[in-house]
Amino acid sequence: MTQNKIPPQIHLWVPDLFEGGKGGIRVYSTFLIQALQKLRPHCKYDIFLKHDAAQPSNLPFLEQTQFHFSGQWPLRFRTPAFAFQLASYGLWQRPSLILSTHLNFTVVAYWLKQLTGTPYWAVAHGVDAWDIQKPALRRGLQGADRILAVSDYTRTRLLQEQDLDPERVVLLPNTFDSDRFQIKSKPEALLKRYCLQAEQPVILTVARLDATERYKGYDQILQALPEIRQQIPDVHYLLVGQGSDRPRIEQLVDQLQLQDCVTLTGFVPDQELGDHYNLCDVFAMPSKSEGFGIVYLEALACGKPTLGGNQDGATDALCQGDLGVLVDPDDVPALAQTLTTVLQGTYPNPRIYQPEWLRQQVIERFGWQQFQKTLAELLQNLG
């Protein structure tokens, strides 16, 4: 590249990267930015963050990356302030590409494209992409040059519900950090913390405990526990996560008289998450509105039998049942029987009990290298 040549400029529109809890959209956005900068290091990057107010100093981004924050605005003013920032910089800088990691931002991208011809891509995760009725958002979807769906389930549902060109809706599944999630024995420190025995069967769910996310299926596991206990009396359920739904969950635990076999851990720091996966004998999240579910990949990377619902993006993460167990999340008796079978070691797919094979497969199919390879193929048409 000659000294006088201006590098291509890419705008990334992201809900947040630095503050608050680590949700699926944030994790995906982080991996997407890292992969993009590795594949296109010569580009100039401007990253616009709706809910962040400042950038930590120790995170690795290319030197030519500029951050723009809207998190300093009060919440009621933040959306219009963010939209104005996106529009004004878009009109001024005329980037080569806009990449939005949330579909809501496509409303602004659509109008910029009408005014300046700037192409834009958007990421479709899960509930954000389903049952869209707002005309402006539907136009934003229809105007996108490419929509990156995190799962085939999300892609299929988008195509069924919206008038979109199938060739413009492509797959870029979630990925994960395989170095952080390794196969290890049950950690002694956590056994002591939760008063568990090493041989005690443990079911684990990792989820945000919020009323809007009850679809994760932790209620169903609680309701299944009395039946599971009839076959496995010492079974224990660990529910990792925090949120406003906790008081209701505690009431349900009391109603079902499960106080002695359920632990609500509350917040668990990132550095302890891998240890919690290794503490369990089966990871279970029988969801029914999950766009994909990075937690399934993390559990598989720790070599754990993994259970998900058969009605959402968990089917992608578990490769249609090849890497795990799929159940009807609304059928509590079937869920109880399936979890009992898994814990007793008699589930008909013996590969779920092969930790090294599970880890190898999940890395090959969803690891960082595969994510970069898929993104590189999608970027080829950009030149």
Task: Write structural notes for this entry.
By secondary structure, this protein is of the alpha/beta class. The protein folds into 2 domains: 9-175 and 367-382, Rossmann fold, CATH 3.40.50; 188-365, Rossmann fold (3-Layer(aba) Sandwich), CATH 3.40.50.2000. The chain is built from 14 helices and 13 strands. The chain has helices at residues 24-39, 75-93, 106-116, 135-143, 152-161, 188-193, 218-231, 246-255, 270-279, 294-301, 314-317, 332-343, 355-366, 368-379, and strands at residues 9-14, 44-49, 65-69, 97-100, 120-124, 146-149, 169-171, 202-206, 236-240, 262-266, 282-285, 306-309, 325-327. The chain is elongated and about 65 Å long. The two termini are 14 Å apart.
Which percent band covers the strand fraction? 15-25%
- Average pLDDT taken over every residue: 93
Oligomer: single chain
Q: What count of domains describes the coordinates? A: 2
Spatial strand order of the main sheet: 3-2-1-4-5-6-7
Q: Please give the number of β-strands.
A: 13
**CATH fold-level topology of the largest domain:** Rossmann fold
Tell me the major beta sheet.
7 strands, parallel
Q: End-to-end distance, in Å?
A: 14 Å
Topology:
Elements: E1 9-14, H1 24-39, E2 44-49, E3 65-69, H2 75-93, E4 97-100, H3 106-116, E5 120-124, H4 135-143, E6 146-149, H5 152-161, E7 169-171, H6 188-193, E8 202-206, H7 218-231, E9 236-240, H8 246-255, E10 262-266, H9 270-279, E11 282-285, H10 294-301, E12 306-309, H11 314-317, E13 325-327, H12 332-343, H13 355-366, H14 368-379
Helix pairs in contact: 1-14, 2-3, 3-4, 7-12, 13-14
